[in-house]
Amino acid sequence: MRIVSLQVNSIQRTFLSDDQKTYAFGPNVNIIFSAKNSVGKTTLLRMLMYALGYPIPSTRGIRFSDYETVLTVIGANEREFVLTRNRNYIEIAYDGNENGYSLPSEQAELHTLIFGIDNLEVVENLLGAFYIDQEKGWTLLNRGKVIGDIHFSIESLLRGLSNKSNDELAQRLAVVRREIQKYKHMLDVANYKAEINKLGETIYLDSTADEIESMLEALYCERKPLEEELHRIKNVVRKNCSFEKYIASFRLRVKTPDGNEIPVNKDTLVGYADTAQLLVTKQRLVCQRLAEIDQKIQVLKSRQDKDEAMFDVKTRLEQFDSEISRIDVDALAIQRIISKLEKERKSLEDQVITNVKRDNPLVIELHGLISQYATRLGLDEKYVSARTDYIFTNDLKSLSGAIFHKVVFAFKISYVKLIQNHTGICLPIILDSPRGREVSEENVNEMMAILSEDYYDHQIIIASIYNSYAFTDKIVIELQDRLLPF
């Protein structure tokens, strides 16, 4: 698959020349270049993926939903597809046909048509293989977020390529993950309910004027002894401070049976420090309880002050709080359920990895590709283990800086090659800012040499502030002022 062109139209366009912008891409190497940052290189790459139907987040200053995109690509079987996206709807024209797709619900169906791949697990992991985003892409090795809410999983990709997508473990794992998310949402509701109840923000929502008056009287009755207790504690604390100074002023000393003399002060009085700390703690607790009561009183008095004609009119937030306050949610029980599900999720993930690795030649093939590219980038077994299960590693802390950058690159291009070997599709390779902060020009040249030698039949699109990449056949798309003129 390769990108031919991207046309961006203003939704309110009048079909004048300054209401649209078109970017053309060559079949080989394309460098999106600008001498300075914040011109629109990353935005252009993301807009390409947005036009392809992915739920890509907008960049600062440009909201993708404000524009209509027309993307022309050469997809499966060298067919030309023209995709016109307007917000969450895409029309696609090909071979004299026109179809419409609603996003994101029909995204998989759309991409199955374009890429010519039927296995949904493979389709869902394509973006994580061929696109490396500036922010998260260079830290995504084998699982995690590609960009926004789009995820990549090496286990899922291998299952799909191995035609093991109907595995019961994978299905159960998907169910457990959904249940965890739902229970976490329930826990959020429980925490929200506890917070508004603590602040007293729901106590008046369904109460009459007489009930509110009764609540106020009860709160004042509850407040008075607390206020008196706080006053007493403060007096005791104040007297204790005076007592400390009083005792110290005498410079008294006591003699122990063995003849030693000990000064009499707050440090030598047994239990004095603990008693003082207890008083301070009690004072803090009483102050906190008084603050909660005062908050409830303030809310109730505020409700009383409202115009009587508006008394029964609730805002949407008040209505929501009222409904939430009626929900019976046991936060502790939910936390126990989540903890149990998390353990099951971890166990299932381990079993899924084991199942994917079992008698799967693709694991050996992928590890061979990664090891080959790692060696060409100057990385030995200290960084990329000779064990085939290394491709499932979770140990990313041992890799940092330029080493991690090169390892990620080796993994990503290996995914692209593996997908090509088993589906026949030549994915584009799209890199945003391959020269990171700690990556030298020499390291980048090593990566580009691999692309030039082994991926000459793939379209390559690179966004960078550097234009010195040594490709023999490249098109430079230079951005000077801004990405869009409107």
Write a structural description.
The protein is of the alpha/beta class. A hairpin with a 2-residue loop joins strand 9 and strand 10. The chain has helices spanning 41-51, 107-115, 120-124, 126-130, 154-161, 168-199, 209-250, 272-305, 316-326, 331-357, 361-376, 401-423, 441-454; strands spanning 2-10, 20-24, 29-33, 67-74, 80-86, 89-94, 97-102, 131-132, 143-147, 150-153, 253-255, 261-263, 429-432, 460-464, 474-478. Strands 2-1-4-5-6-7 form a 6-stranded antiparallel sheet, covered by helices on one side.
Using the alpha-carbon principal axes, give the shape: elongated
Low-confidence stretches at least 5 residues in length (pLDDT < 50)?
none
CATH superfamily of the largest domain: P-loop containing nucleotide triphosphate hydrolases
Helix count, per DSSP?
A: 13
Structural class: alpha/beta
Mean pLDDT comes to 86
Terminal Cα separation, in Å?
30 Å
Per the CATH scheme, the topology name of the largest domain is: Rossmann fold
Tell me about the largest β-sheet. 6 strands, antiparallel
CATH class of the largest domain: Alpha Beta
Strand line-up in the sheet with most strands: 2-1-4-5-6-7
Strand element count: 15
State the CATH architecture of the largest domain: 3-Layer(aba) Sandwich
**Percentage of residues in DSSP E strands:** 15-25%
Short description:
This protein is an alpha/beta fold and 486 residues long. It contains 13 helices and 15 strands.
